[in-house]
Amino acid sequence: MKERGLIPETLREDENMREEITREEFAELVTRYFIEIKPQTIEGEEVFTDTLSPLVQC
């Protein structure tokens, strides 16, 4: 994911990926992975209300 530029900006400073991440950052990683590497259709109406990140809310 790093080589493809899919790491969220908030995580790029931790080059070794050893720091703890938030639930929002994890959701962004997973969403970017499935959008770019394993595209698929996701159905559902639920959205998270505790974040403004469009990658988490999609």
Descriptive account of the structure:
With 58 residues, the protein is an all-alpha fold. It has one domain. It is built from 2 helices and no strands. The two termini are 20 Å apart.
Summarize the structure.
By secondary structure, this protein is mainly α. The protein contains two helices and no strands.
Q: Biggest β-sheet, characterized?
A: none
Specify the structural class: mainly alpha
- Using only C-alpha atoms, the radius of gyration works out to 12 Å
Beta-strand fraction estimate: under 5%
- List SSEs in N-to-C order: HH
Pick out the low-confidence regions: none
Number of beta strands: 0
Helical percent range? 25-40%
Overall form: flat
The number of distinct helices, counting runs of at least 4 residues, comes to 2
- Taking the alpha carbons of the first and last residues, their distance comes to 20 Å
In quaternary terms, these chains amount to single chain
Count of domains:
1
- Quote the average pLDDT: 77
Essential attributes:
58 residues; flat
Topology overview:
Blueprint: H1 23-36, H2 54-57
